[in-house]
Write a structure and sequence with these properties.
Strand content: 5-15%
CATH topology of one domain: Rossmann fold
Structural class: alpha/beta
Number of helices: 11
Order of helices and strands: EHEHEHEHEHEEEEHHHHHHEEEE
CATH architecture of one domain: 3-Layer(aba) Sandwich
Helix content: 10-25%
Distance between the termini: 39 Å
Amino acid sequence: MSSKNKPQYSVISLFSGAMGLDIGVEQTGRYKFLACLEKESIFCETIRLNQRKGRLSPDMKIYEGDINHIDPLEILSDLDLCPGDIDLIVGGPPCQAFSTAGKRQSTQDPRGTLLWQFLRFVSVIKPKFFLMENVRGLISAALLHRPIADRPDKGGPPLTEKELPGSVIQLFVEDLKKIKDASYRLDGFEVNAVNYGAPQIRERVLFIGNRYNVEVHFPDPTHGPSGILSQQKTLFEDGNEIIPWKTLRDAIGELNEDNPEIMDFSPRKKRYLSKIPEGSNWRSLPLEDQKESMKKAFYAKGGRSGWWRRLSYDLPCPTLVTMPNHAGTSLCHPKEVRALTLKEYSRIQEFPDDWEFLGTTSQKYAQVGNAVPVRLGRIAGDVIASNLDKLKSQNWTVESEPILNYKLTYIQSHIRTRQWYKNGKTYIWENDGENSENCYSLPKTKRKTKIII
């Protein structure tokens, strides 16, 4: 049965941004978006523009404003609906406090954060399902951040309960259990977009909650580091060989732009990047240039693989950032000495080719770079729709067994990086060449489930 002959389910989107997650969910053909909520004015202008151009439902209401000051009951009233009527709430609360990419600050008052604003909307609207995505760092985030230098292994006192890794999501689950007149089960999944056919390595955590005590299952990866990307065959657990990862070439190899919009490198940065071959990074510079260009970072620990990085056409793109022209997180085109263009960014995130963005160039890059890969929204949307279909056929009967656990399942999300440097030798990825020494390692763990609380 095609999606046209299947029921459509109602959706409210929170923290909509440029609607990457929402576009993916909508592409399943199984949902109708009734409303979206976004704080940033220019993001809302992007949404309105695409709605005017017919790329979004003309009936979808757009709420611009701070979620802290918006009453979910007013939204339900506008839609002429009651608590419990909405099928799905989707959204990704801003996650900088929990990201491992920068300085983790966590939160001193978690119930005042945007994560708890998402929970507030769930508690009032009481959707049948909700989909909340976030950075993988949320899983290990603590309610109170203890500087590394003050931790027990450095001579500090034992961590308090609020300083323990995972205490943020534990409190979130405890508060989820307290929602009046709605008992939600929660299943979380650590996934990577590249493993499902996106041309980008990007880890996310997806939390799927439902009021019917249904245990939700997320599919195994369909793509993996086979062929030139790995020296071993990668198989499903049932023995079927998986599809090779999509590459940067798949996303942008045939893209031609007459007047590209770009947040480019400065002339100084281009001087160093011009010396970097495709598929390499700062390790290919002469030692004098390494020290001069990287300054203190040259002496820092870690691989620093993003410094003066030039991409390879025959590999997936690294995780997109909001600014591709930083020296330490460089996203330089494989052949040209320039950053990736805005259109290339959009292609890598798999936005539709006709999707438009408004604002300054930096605002547009932020909208694309902060978005959830469209593909993950589509896969999660299919998972939820199949569960809604089953429940609908059973007349929305709640599973009889009590909720036993709130679970988190790791699904091959961590991609073990390829070799860049070892024992004094720099490894450069060569398209169609011999890459046996600098290939990606196969994952040690494919799927593992643990109890959140």
